[in-house]
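Figure S7 source data.
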Amino acid sequence: MPDGEYGTLVPFKEEPCQQANGCVEPAIYRCHKCGLLYCLDHASEIDPQRFCIKCLIIDDCKVEETPLVDAEGERHRGRVLRPVGNAFTAENRLIQEMSEDELKVYITQYKIIVRNHEQMVTFARINLAQAEHALLEKRIKTIEGAGGEVIFTSRPKAVKPTPKKKPDAVQALADKLKASGITPEMLQAIIDAKKKKAG
Ligand SMILES: [Zn+2]
Ligand SMILES: [Zn+2]
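Tokens for the predicted zinc ion complex:
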């Protein structure tokens, strides 16, 4: 592991950033990959406490997301996350080499990072939703101001066609007979007479 207290501020306050030519900002940390000092402006956005802006970029942290499908091909709730970026391999190698004390510091640090990022995401989502809502309200006002009317259309519910009752052939015949005045007794007499004739 390069010089510098692991996961803590490196006491180089008086030393300048070594990242870009001419950067005179005071260094805050030493990069754990290249070993150079870096300032706040040249810190990695993903993990500003351990990497400089060049050594940990978002492209190295790609995660592949696929649906969760079991051996029978059935889909389940959830997804499979596969870290494909280069950074994970290097990081995992580093983690495997850490002592228990180093792991404890690392875990604490990453818990803070996760919490901070979650707060950032929540903050961003709320602001995004508020802005989208404000934009929508402005548009509605503009349309209404011009004498128009905004109608929110919701998708009509798919109406299940009620299955039509299959016409009962026997019932239909009985109805016909009833309408023509023929009673079941008369019908029986006709059948009997036909049988006699045939027999
Ligand atoms: Zn670096
Ligand atoms: Zn700098």
